[in-house]
Amino acid sequence: MTMNHTTLRQLFTDFWKERGHQEVPPAPLVLKEDPTTLFTSSGMQPLVIYLAGANPHPLGKRLFDIQPCIRTQDMDKVGDNRHDTFFEMMGNWSLGDYFKKEQLSWYFEFLTKVIKLPKNKLHFTIFEGDNMVPRDVESAKTWKDLGVEESHIHYYGIEANWWSRSGTPDKMPVGEIGGPDSEVFYDFGTPHDERFGKECQPNCECGRFMEIGNSVFIQYKKIGDGTLQELPQKNVDFGGGIERMLAAINNNPDIFETDVFSKIIKAVEDVSGKKYYENKSAMRIIADHIKASTFLIAQGVKPSNKEQGYILRRLLRKATIKFKNLEKKINEQDIMAVAQSVIETYKEVYFDDTTGKIVDNEIGPEIFKFTSSLDKGLKEIEKLIQLKGEITGKIAFDLYQSYGFPLEITEEILKNKGQKINRDEFVSEFNKHKELSRSASAGMFKGGLADQSVQTTRYHTATHLINQTLTDLLGSDVSQVGSNITGERLRFDFTSSRKPTDEEIKEVENIVNKKVEEGLDVYYKDIPKDEALKLGAKSFFKQKYPDIVKVYFIGRERFKTVPYDVYSKEFCGGPHVKNTKEIGKISIYKFEKIGNNIYRIYAKNK
Ligand code: SER
Predict the structure, then answer these.
(1) Is the minimum distance from the CB of 42 to ligand 1 under 6 angstroms?
(2) How many angstroms does the Cα of residue 534 sit away from the middle of ligand 1?
(3) Which residues contact 474 (CB under 8 A, 6 or more apart)?
(4) What residues contact residue 288 under an 8 Å CB cut-off, 6+ apart?
(5) Would you say 68 and 40 are in contact if contact means Cβ atoms under 8 Å apart?
(6) Which of 85, 99, 150, 482 has a 20 to 30 A CA-CA distance from 333?
(7) 194 Rama sector, left if φ>0, alpha if ψ -120 to 50, beta otherwise
(8) For residue 491, how many C-alpha atoms fall within 13 Å in the half-sphere facing its CB?
């Protein structure tokens, strides 16, 4: 059977909705509120605080999502049949609600009944236990009760069947949460398949088995004395890559032959004039890296020399060099053509008509600059290959400075020739340079931002105005699904059965600014929940509220006793400004679709 990604998304969505789960809108690839990592790299990352049990999630205890992720640690592995830097993780969660039995039974039902994978092709792995955490007998029993044969159940230790963001318990920092997991593998071979190793088992790298889903039972937290403590709330964190699930449905172990890659590979073939089956590794790298780059650019990342921007630059440059290896004279048009095929592949899900232009505008100058010195840079590397011994960090840094060759790329080319670079020296050259340029630009930040907390309070009140205005303009099916506020901007996510037009978004901005100008009072009252609901105060999602709730009103002070006439009323804990004048005029500078019927607005002060 083959299936396209649109169908798989729908089946997954319907399945979890039917089981009482709410859809969490995808988080951006760059999570500003989580400075510990560069990118969102798993579906659970935006949910960490809720999994730790500190706060209830506004959407409830049963959640699912399809989350775009970037895993830079897998960048060097791209080129085989299964690794990619950008992927989408389908996930479902129980936040202290159901646990192992329900999770494994439902997932089994999804695999065997919904996407109809043959039972004899599935293998199941389980945590075998160690001196800190007991063997996961409950998962084993559940799989057996579901009819899984003993020979398809495999036990592994902490290295294979434990999950936390940092890895095994010894690597977890104090405060991090994690737990044992049970993974499902798809078997692409047959019992005596000569293409694969004789001793092959699910965690073998020979290519026969592929992990298609991981149910993590997050129930521990690392504490100060280095031991694991049971969390008060036991959670399920399931994640499975869309790409790998499609490969299993197709019964073809190459994720690059599923329809989330086929158009992109075709574009690489067209541009290079070469065939995929003769150049698989290079073409996989090109397709994956340009895909990841397109998503990053579409979300506002720009190529630069640091952090996310540097990764983007590395991805684009590596893709360019790989094109060059296909003996192709490469230019920015070629990369743009492949990026367009990425947009084409995902346009129904993530992109709109403006994305193409945004992506071209970044890729054009970036690749133009790099390709104009690419030949010279490659010649310099050729010279290095003739040198004996370790390459100094200074030489590698010059190559980066003059020809734009990121360290990792030079390193990889040289590694294939048996040479290596002194990394420490490179880093110290790099830092020296950074300090120089930093002192040159010092002074740029004089003055600084207005006090952060004052500014975030202003933006918070602005989200209430936006929420009300959107409902007035688009109808009552508008509902807020999230917001995120920093000192620099506000972000507001909402559902709507149709996409608002650019004019409507402009109108929202105008009305909000009118309300700012009118100088409306902002005040709250503690009232019984039923009364607040009767008043029509906006409440959030499916959140459980106490009997007495705080409702924020925006309106004229003189209507304080008649709160029916106010502009906005919302269940909210605050804090807010006292008068809308304090907010100042705002401008909505970005508006995008982030999911099925889910939209996102960014706004900041003018
Ligand atoms: N957190 C787990 C993973 O990333 C499952 O969602 O694999």
Answers:
(1) yes
(2) 41
(3) 496, 498, 500, 504
(4) 78, 84, 85, 86
(5) yes
(6) 85
(7) alpha
(8) 19
Q: Does residue 163 have its Cβ closer than 6 Å to ligand 1?
A: yes
- 481 ligand 1 Cβ < 6 A: no
- Closest Cα partner for 84 from 105, 68, 100? 68
Cβ–ligand 1 contact at 286 (below 6 Å): no
Q: Does residue 572 line the site of ligand 1, with CB under 6 A? A: no
Q: What does the pLDDT read at residue 557?
A: 59
Ligand 1 pocket member 106 (CB < 6 A): no
In the chain, where are the structural domains located?
5-257, 262-441, 454-605
Mean pLDDT on 125-137: 94
The minimum-distance atom of ligand 1 relative to the CA of 91 is 6
Is 273 buried (19+), middle (13-18) or exposed (0-12) by CB count in 10 A? exposed
**At a CB cut-off of 8 Å and minimum separation 6, what does 189 contact?**
195, 196, 200, 208, 209
Q: 490-495 and 598-605: which strand pairing? A: antiparallel
| Distance between Cα 160 and ligand 1 center (Å) | 13
Please determine, for residue 449, whether its predicted confidence score (pLDDT) is greater than 50: no
What is d(CA 484, CA 466) in angstroms, rounded to the nearest whole number? 13
For residues 453-458, average pLDDT: 77
C-alpha closest to that of 208 among 219, 223, 220, 197: 197
Helical axes 355-372 vs 280-298, angle rounded to 10°: 120
The angle that helices 5-18 and 242-250 make with each other, rounded to 10 degrees, is 110
Q: Are 552 and 570 in contact (CB under 8 A)?
A: yes
Dist. CA 181 → ligand 1 center (Å): 9
Residues 84, 85, 86, 88: what is their CA dihedral angle, to the nearest 10 degrees? 60
Ligand 1: nearest atom to the Cα of 216? 5
Residue nearest atom 4 in ligand 1 by C-alpha distance: 42
d(CA 358, CA 393): 36
The whole-number average pLDDT for the span 440-454 is 35
Q: What is the pLDDT of residue 181?
A: 97
Question: Which is nearest to 217 in space by CA: 379, 117, 100, 369?
Answer: 100
User: Which CATH homologous superfamily contains domain 454-605?
Assistant: Threonyl-trna Synthetase; Chain A, domain 2 (3.30.980.10)
Q: Encode pLDDT of 176-220 as tens digits.
A: 899 999 999 999 987 677 777 777 889 887 788 999 999 999 999
**Distance separating alpha carbons of residues 127 and 158, to the nearest angstrom:** 7
Contact 438, 445 (CB under 8 A): no
Q: Model-level pTM?
A: 0.72
Residue 103 near residue 15 (C-beta atoms within 8 A)? no
Residue 107: half-sphere exposure toward Cβ, Cα within 13 Å: 33
Which residue puts its alpha carbon closest to atom 7 of ligand 1?
Answer: 239
The whole-angstrom separation of Cα 140 and Cα 463 is 48
The CATH number of 5-257 is which of 3.30.1130.10, 1.10.10.350, 3.30.450.20, 3.30.930.10?
3.30.930.10
Q: Is the Cβ atom of 90 under 6 angstroms away from ligand 1?
A: no
The answer to whether domain 5-257 and domain 454-605 are alike in fold is no
H or E stretch covering 309: helix 307-325
